[in-house]
Amino acid sequence: MAERRYFGTDGIRGRANTYPMTPEVALRVGLAAGRMFMSSDDRRHLVVIGKDTRLSGYMIEPALVAGFSSAGMDVRTFGPLPTPGVAMMTRSMRADIGVMISASHNAFLDNGIKLFGPDGYKLSDEVELKIESMMDEDLGSGLAAADRIGRVKRIDDSQARYVEIAKASFPKGLSLQGLRIAVDCANGAGYKVAPTTLYELGAEVCAVGVEPNGLNINDQCGSTHPETLAEAVKRYRADVGIALDGDADRVIICDENGRVVDGDQIMALVALDWAKRGQLKGGGLVATVMSNLGLERRLQAEGLTLERTKVGDRYVMERMREGGFNLGGEQSGHIILHDYATTGDGLMSALQVLAVLVESGKPMSELARQFETVPQKLENVRYTAGKPLEDAKVKAAIADAEARLAGVGRLLVRPSGTEKLIRVMAEGDDAKLVKAVVADVAAAVKAAG
Fold first, then answer.
1. First and final C-alpha spacing in the chain
2. If you compute the radius of gyration of the chain from its CA atoms, what whole number of angstroms results?
3. Which of 163, 145, 343, 369 is nearest to 266 (CA)?
4. What pLDDT is attached to residue 8?
5. How far apart are CA 163 and CA 193, in angstroms?
6. What pLDDT sits at residue 323?
7. Nearest of 380, 421, 417 to residue 11 by alpha carbon
8. Interior CA angle at 38 toward 35 and 40, to 5°?
9. Alpha-carbon separation of residue 334 from 127, 136, 251, 329, 347 (angstroms)
């Protein structure tokens, strides 16, 4: 496959107002994607655009609008809306393409552009590469005639539409009445829709991270800072806590004691509940190479399978569609419920956990630990230049670590698709060995980078 210049594992992402996250690149995305998705028939073509709460979204959105409209596509903007909401609206509004402006769990300094096809699924690598090849062409080529320039409108009820879709995923006949729920919306895209959905389903809602100012998205809040949710759970004496990330496609749960429940435990809880109901499809679930070995063992004990993919929810989704699975996701809390959504949805995933909580009558602390985790250590090593994984000493350190873990654990070393980080992860039954091999490989990467 050709080397990517703009797109990473989750769209285009980078520091705002710094290449490639500049208005010019956004304009080129709009022009290229617009031209690509314009068919030869005479009908009007449509693109829908949502965003999170970052200040730079107000810079990126107009550039995208200009690109798409100048290519002849009509544009509908949603304002702040979760990524899964944009995917749903792309399909329900019969749009040709959907765009989400977000850098997910990253700080406000970053931003990104994610693209969805008319079916609501993220674009394939092949389609993204075709768009890339068109982005560097002459900006003046392929522009629409003056009377065919796209019309632009704001859709004011997009959040209300998403709330109704989210509520419909909660089992009929159940209510959240009597539950006190702490929810941390990361000052991001879910800051209105998540508390509203929980309230309308009957819960007493204690919301934090719901005062975005353009600069505080994911700032010491949300799923990447679960300590804020844990503190809120204790402060409000909540029965359960829910933390979303900046674009609300991830979720982390806290039990009533403030203990964190990660994506692996959430997937196990939902998978076993769905299997009991005969609702689980594919005979198991799909996760990435990062998911804990304990999850795999727990599923196997119940006669279920765990299929692994490389990191990235797009690859999880691809395998789910190929194998007929309806549940998959990542340890980070990016969980895909294919019966309801075409991409990860933090709020809908939380609602599935809450359904089990309500029906079981048990406290969240009893449901939170579905399996014993195998000792796992992850270290992110930042680098500034070069390709550390091609360094001879790094290769030697990796080979040595793999030899030490042979038969008793596993090692995973990979570059981040969105940041200049090398992620070093190991797991095995011997915690000391796991910690030692990660330290050794991380030290070699630091020396190289």
1. 26
2. 22
3. 369
4. 82
5. 6
6. 97
7. 417
8. 120
9. 23, 32, 7, 5, 11
The whole-number pLDDT of residue 10 equals 82
Sheet hosting strand 376-382, strand order edge to edge: 376-382, 421-428, 409-415
Cα–Cα dist 5/128, whole Å: 10
Inter-CA distances, 279 with 273, 343, 345, 358, Å = 8, 19, 18, 18
- Active site members: 104
The arrangement of strands across the sheet holding 251-254 comes to 204-208, 180-184, 240-244, 251-254, 260-261
Identify the CA nearest to 89 among candidates 78, 104, 80, 79: 78
The amino acid occupying position 70 is S
CB 260 within 8 A of CB 227: no
Contact 239, 353 (CB under 8 A): no
| CB 299, CB 268: distance < 8 Å | yes
| CB contact at 8 A, 215 and 111 | no
Beta bridge partners of 306: 285
User: Which secondary structure element, helix H or strand E, spans residue 229, and what is its range?
Assistant: helix 226-236
Cα separation, 262 vs 192, whole angstroms = 24
Q: What's the mean per-residue pLDDT of the chain?
A: 95
Query: Are 97 and 90 in contact, with CB atoms under 8 Å apart?
Result: yes
Q: How far apart are CA 356 and CA 349, in angstroms?
A: 11
DSSP state of 388: G
With b meaning 16 or more CB within 10 Å and e meaning fewer, what string describes 150-175? bebeebeebbebbbebbbebbeeeee
> Does residue 399 have a pLDDT over 90?
yes
- Residue 210 corresponds to which tokens in the numbers above? 């719901």
Of 379, 412, 406, 381, the residue nearest 292 (C-alpha): 412
Q: What amino acid is encoded at 107 in this protein? A: A
CA distance 244 to 445: 31
Q: Are 413 and 389 in contact, with CB atoms under 8 Å apart?
A: yes
Backbone angles phi, psi at 408, to 5 degrees: -125, 0
Please, are residues 315 and 328 in contact by the beta-carbon 8 Å criterion? no
User: Per the omega criterion (within 30 degrees of 0), is the bond before 195 cis?
Assistant: no
| pLDDT-based confidence at residue 40 (cuts at 50, 70, 90) | low
Q: Could you tell me if 218 and 224 are in contact, meaning their C-beta atoms sit under 8 angstroms apart?
A: yes
Backbone phi, then psi, for 435, in 5-degree steps? -65, -40
**Triad 236, 270, 241: Cα angle to 5°:** 10
- Cite the DSSP H helix spans in 361-428: 364-368, 392-405
C-alpha to C-alpha distance for 242 and 168, rounded to whole angstroms = 19
- Identify any residues that bridge with 387 across adjacent strands, giving them in sequence order: none
